[in-house]
Design brief:
By secondary structure, the chain is α/β, with parallel strands linked by helices. It contains 18 helices and 16 strands. The chain is elongated and about 90 Å long. Bound molecules: 5'-O-[(L-methionyl)-sulphamoyl]adenosine.
Length: 514
């Protein structure tokens, strides 16, 4: 049977801003998802990158007296360094300034044009430069941009248009026939009403600046940033030259994005693809926004959360765990050090960290740290309960990950951590150890507890790769957790006997309140 494929993407980030928690959030979520899919046996592909063209970058570079490409080169390394330090396992990083991307944009433009969907016109409307968006009169709020509240300018320029209006019905039909296409449901309803109001043709070129991909055949125009940027999702999987990779991974299983850029992904992008005769992504999932201690995050408030600093201070895994556990994916959330420290102390130090150290400490004390060899795994109530709980957890986590419900997946894993902690409490190895006649039962209990830890190590791995790896290492597993597959957890007893374990220091030392 051919291996199932899975393709997930983040938005590509603008290079006129430095990375913050909002960027890290999407990227960490996609990373957890792709690692999960790999451990589930999929051939999974993960794309991220940077959005480097457009007026904002051109302006920012001019203000610093540098070339746009130099600015992009500088900022792009900040993203790449951050992703490395957060253990992001992307397979490809697309920069919209790379030749392969230009080739891809030119080709999709050509196909859309060939289909009769591009015409030259004049564009006039209210333009918000910071947001690079034209607004209609009635979208403005007291004359200002409805997104950022800054003043807009009346702007007219010659422009190529894309006949988006032509795809209104096809798009609506697609949304109706594919209830999974736009998630969460509340967002889907927003898009349906927007499309029903009527789609206007879309201006897809600009003459007012030059930092972009020239329109094929008319280099006075550059291609509108969103037409350029959205195309990264196919560039990243080989469009148009590498047909094998492209047909392997496209259509994407999910584009993960923030709620502010849903319209571009759920309306513009699908209509471009329909026109170009390419399949639509299977799902677009819009997550919520983070505020910081109750306030909107902004440079002027000076409250921008730097993910690298958080990871350095509290640990990469603690940061990854926090952002995915704290808030249901799709809803808005609030970041505070207090909440982060609370999660670390209760879930990571108390529940998980304690469990690992108490099990390995007992194994050290009673069996010299060597995983016992057992003939059976026991049929007592707690033994069976724990085995069933692992099977149920695997099934529940799988359902949650299909819905991108990271917080529920983690809750389910932590319920299992609770089951294992109770297993140790009820089987009381310290009592068994006092009675030589019960040595066999003690072996069984210690084996089972370690075997449960093997499961936990692999289950947490997608979310917290370092922790998962470390749990497996301490258990003396012959392979790193990176190579683990959930399939191996379906049968109880995969932990090799006689392995030498290591207790090690606390996985998550408690942190005093900030
Ligand atoms: N370049 C475009 C995306 C093009 S995709 C074809 C862009 N870039 S961005 O850098 O401004 O934003 C990228 C992502 O960061 C968006 O998904 C946005 O929702 C997310 N976030 C920005 N601030 C955020 C928060 N405060 N909280 C959560 N996510 C936030 O848009």
């Amino acid at each position: 049977m051919a291996t199932e494929t899975f393709y997930v993407s983040t938005p590509i980030y603008y290079v006129n801003d430095v990375p913050h928690i909002g960027h890290a959030y999407t990227t960490v979520a996609c990373d957890a998802l792709v690692r999960y899919k790999r451990a589930a046996g999929c051939d999974a592909f993960f794309l991220t990158g940077t959005d480097e063209h457009g007026q904002k970058v051109e302006k920012a570079a001019a203000e610093r007296g540098e070339r746009p490409i130099d600015l992009a080169d500088r900022v792009v390394t900040r993203f790449q360094t951050l992703w490395k330090s957060l253990d992001i396992s992307n397979d490809r990083f697309v920069r919209t300034t790379e030749p392969a991307h230009r080739r891809s944009v030119e080709e999709i433009f050509r196909r859309v044009k060939e289909n009769g969907d591009v015409y030259l016109g004049a564009y006039e409307d209210w333009y918000c430069t910071p947001c690079e968006t034209f607004w209609t009169e009635n979208q403005l709020i007291e004359g200002n941009c409805p997104d950022c509240n800054r003043p807009t300018d009346r702007l007219q320029e010659p422009s190529y248009f894309f006949r988006m209006s032509r795809y209104q019905d096809a798009l609506l039909k697609h949304i109706e026939e594919n209830p999974e296409f736009i998630q969460p449901v509340s967002r889907r309803n927003e898009i349906v009403s927007f499309v029903k109001e009527g789609l206007r043709d879309l201006s897809i070129s600009r003459t007012s600046f030059s930092w972009g991909i020239p329109v094929p055949g008319d280099p006075d125009h550059v291609i509108y940033v969103w037409f350029d940027a959205l195309t990264n999702y196919i560039t990243g999987v080989g469009f148009p030259d590498d047909e094998e990779t492209f047909s392997r991974y496209w259509p994407a299983d999910v584009h993960v994005i923030g709620k502010d850029i849903l319209r571009f992904h759920a309306v513009y992008w699908p209509t471009f693809l329909l026109s170009a005769g390419l399949p639509l992504p299977k799902k677009v999932f819009a997550h919520g926004w983070w505020t910081v201690e109750g306030k909107k995050m902004s440079k002027s408030l000076g409250n921008v959360v730097d993910p690298a600093a958080m990871a350095e201070e509290y640990g990469v895994d603690a940061f990854r765990y926090f952002v995915l556990r704290e808030v249901p994916f799709g809803l808005d959330g609030d970041f505070s050090r207090e909440a982060l420290v609370h999660r670390i102390n209760s879930d990571l130090a108390n529940d998980l960290g304690n469990l690992v150290s108490r099990v390995l400490a007992m194994l050290g004390k009673y069996r010299g740290g060597v995983v016992p060899r057992v003939v059976s795994f026991g049929t007592d109530g707690p033994d069976e309960e724990m085995r069933d709980a692992l099977a149920n957890t695997l099934a529940e986590v799988d359902r949650c990950m299909d819905e991108l419900a990271f917080n529920r997946a983690l809750t389910a894993i932590w319920q299992f951590v609770g089951v294992v902690n109770r297993y140790v409490d009820t089987t009381a190895p310290w009592v068994l150890a006092k009675d030589d006649a019960r040595a066999g039962r003690l072996d069984q209990v210690l084996y089972n507890a370690c075997e449960a830890l093997r499961g936990i190590g692999l289950l947490v791995f997608p979310f917290m790769p370092r922790t998962g790896r470390e749990i497996w290492r301490r258990l003396g597993m012959p392979r790193p957790a990176d190579e683990g597959r959930f399939e191996e957890l379906r049968e109880w007893g995969g932990l090799p006997a006689d392995a030498r374990t290591e207790r090690g220091p606390s996985l998550f030392p408690r942190i005093e309140a900030p």
